[in-house]
Design brief:
Blueprint lengths: L4 H12 L11 E7 L7 E7 L5 E8 L8 E7 L5 E7 L3 E9 L5 E8 L7 E7 L5 E7 L5 E9 L5 E10 L4 E9 L5 E7 L9 E8 L2 E8 L8 E7 L5 E6 L8 E6 L5 E5 L4 E5 L5 E6 L11 E7 L5 E7 L10 H4 L2 H4 L6 E7 L5 E6 L6 E8 L5 E7 L4 E6 L15 E5 L6 E8 L3 E8 L5 E10 L2 E8 L7 E8 L4 E8 L2
Antiparallel strand pairs: 1-28, 2-3, 3-4, 4-5, 6-7, 7-8, 8-9, 10-11, 11-12, 12-13, 14-15, 15-16, 16-17, 18-19, 19-20, 20-21, 22-23, 23-24, 24-25, 26-27, 27-28, 29-30, 30-33, 31-32, 31-34, 34-35
């Protein structure tokens, strides 16, 4: 059987992601600028669709319009070509986070200001596959600032959104805010969290639906969680606060981003002097590491995004370095790693970790001007696309080729799993061998970490077992993750659905 080039590339990824990787940093394929004549243009979040396109939220303003009309969401292909843009009529606004829904439509959250005299309001916007606005809901209190920073879709078709409520002053003091809505954006309940002391800046930065609970990455403190800084908060779907985790090491560290890990726990990064932190499903720390700034001597660096990769590791994006005084070297010299070992530039920054938290590579993007990476995604065929802003004055995308330099293989696991055929077009056979009888769960996820299907769950005997995953109608071709969950570990395999 002959496969098209994109499938051949995905097969290469399957080989690459089946080993523990000691890699060379990726090589840039292209970089593109968008609306560079408009101040403040940014791409904040990138999500991968099932067809391989890029759904991007951000802010780009048209200063020729009477009320600073702009764009807050975009659909692009992997070459960075705009397929459609979502225009909004607000005085100013930002799409800060987005999600791709199971039916191929989209939802975003952020902040909006409807007239020049209004304060920020949190909004949720539903967008069709074709880029038309289906509905918009605004959530606001008079005379205070409300913003949405993270959104996730729920099993009933509704949404959970986290952000800030009752914000005041230049430091945006306020409380963390969690809302649950139905599929049309109507509020089912909302919860406020954090200190009520004046000028206390608390907020919810990212939210996940995991293990039947809402997990919120938040900033602030309460009597039960007295460490000022980053926390994990857990709520049930009825809005009841279950528990939270306090991290004394992160007293001065603000939250960055959160993702589900392959072992059922969560991994987050901090925004300030970023660290990568991995916990179990209850928020208990399993490991953490400082994320090294690429050239070693920078102290002014920040983290914005953490995503799970196809090999169950993680990719991080942010910006790093500082320029203490004017430097007259050319952009070519600044981008040369040897010249940069003793000098910092304020540029986009990526880092890759394996599932155990071992650093694989760290890399700084150096086009000779300041740029920030607010988001990054791994592509189904390998490689990455990172986005953010260039010199604070233009939205910016960079595409990188897949890594090279594989050096070592992973030790044989104590539980073996195999899948066939791969690629497949309707039914995938999953075989696994257990050393002893135990409870197992076999599930399938897409590359964004969204649960696609539960194949089987239950008690299996020692020895060989087989289960079949029959693809549900409407699921698109692409790369998926098959996860065998055991009491003490998980086994992950990548598969390609080719219709």
């Amino acid at each position: 059987m002959r496969y098209p080039p994109v499938i051949l590339a995905m097969l290469v990824v399957l080989l690459i992601t089946s080993v523990s990787q000691a890699m060379d940093p990726p090589v840039m394929m292209w970089e593109k600028w968008y609306y560079t004549s408009y101040d403040g243009a940014k791409f904040f979040d990138i999500e991968l669709t099932s067809s391989g396109n890029l759904f991007i939220t951000g802010s780009v303003y048209d200063y020729t319009a009477p009320l600073l009309d702009g764009y807050s969401a975009f659909l692009m292909n992997q070459n960075g070509e705009v397929l459609w843009e979502v225009h909004h009529p607000w005085y100013t606004g930002r799409g800060l986070d987005g999600a791709v829904l199971p039916d191929g439509s989209f939802v975003i959250t952020g902040r909006s200001v409807e007239t020049p005299s209004d304060t920020y309001a949190l909004f949720i916007m539903k967008i069709s596959q074709e880029g038309s606005i289906e509905w918009t809901k605004v959530y606001d209190y008079p005379d205070t600032k409300e913003e949405g920073y993270g959104i996730t879709c729920l099993p009933d078709g509704g949404f959970a959104v986290c952000g800030k409520v009752h914000g005041t002053g230049t430091i945006n003091a306020g409380q963390a805010w969690l809302l649950r809505t139905d599929a049309y954006g109507d509020t089912l309940w909302s919860r406020e969290w954090g200190s009520t002391v004046a000028n206390s800046p608390d907020w919810g930065k990212s939210v996940l639906f995991i293990d039947g609970k809402l997990c919120v990455l938040a900033h602030g403190l309460t009597e039960s969680l007295p460490t000022y800084g980053t926390h994990l908060l857990f709520y049930d779907l009825d809005g009841n606060y279950l528990y939270g985790s306090d991290y004394p090491n992160l007293y001065w560290y603000g939250p960055g981003d959160l993702c589900e890990a392959s072992d059922g726990g969560v991994t987050f990064v901090t925004n300030t002097l970023p660290v990568i932190w991995h916990t179990d499903q209850f928020g208990e720390t399993l490991w953490w590491h400082n994320i090294p700034e690429p050239f070693g001597s920078g102290t002014n660096h920040e983290g914005f995004c953490i995503r799970r990769t196809m090999d169950s590791g993680f990719v991080f994006s942010g910006w790093g370095g500082e320029t203490p005084e004017w430097d007259e070297r050319s952009s070519t010299e600044l981008c040369n790693t040897e010249n940069n070992r003793t000098y910092d530039t304020q540029d986009g920054w990526l880092a890759r970790y394996d599932s155990d938290g071992e650093l694989l590579w760290t890399f700084q993007n150096c086009p000779g001007n300041s740029n920030h990476f607010y988001s990054v995604v791994q592509l189904p065929q390998g490689g990455y696309i990172a986005g953010g802003t260039y010199a604070g004055n233009g939205a910016y995308l960079v595409r990188y080729a897949p890594e090279t330099g594989i050096e070592k293989t992973e030790p044989a696991p104590d539980c073996e799993m195999s899948i066939s055929p791969n690629p497949f077009n309707s039914t995938l056979s999953v075989s696994f061998t257990l050393q002893e009888s135990m409870e197992v769960s076999l599930t399938v996820y897409d590359l964004s970490g969204r649960l696609i299907d539960t194949v089987t769950t239950g008690f299996f005997p020692a020895g060989n077992s087989t289960a079949n995953w029959t693809v549900q109608e409407g699921l698109s071709s692409g790369c998926y993750l098959v996860r065998l969950e055991l009491p003490n570990r998980n086994v992950i395999k990548n598969c390609i659905l080719l219709k």
